[in-house]
Amino acid sequence: MADWPRQSPPDVALRGACPRCGRGRLFRGLLTVVDRCQVCDLDLRGNDTGDGPAVLVILGLGAIIVILVFWVEFRYEPPWWLHMLIWGPLTFALAVWFLRVLKALLIAQQFTHRSTALDDQ
Question: What whole-number percentage of the chain has pLDDT above 70?
Fold first, then answer.
């Protein structure tokens, strides 16, 4: 087994890379985690991020978007269709991006802490 350098969880999360080697892709498609890294053959099937990223995105991004909507409405008073044109696509794009990053970050943290726990034994 190759000795892989330790990867920074925020770095691999932002790049959507494998938490072990930092070179393989973590996602197949939009939000589906690959079964194995194509570079280092790390088995990624056992990683479970649960609902954590989704809850954080719903609550956090929802609050930010609502604050921005109110600020734009009271500051500029645009027509309702302009709100729909701005906030619909922006919310969707940011939600998907945040879900990818948070999901990758949790997987990287799981890998890091499992590796550290195995090193201690």
Answer: 93
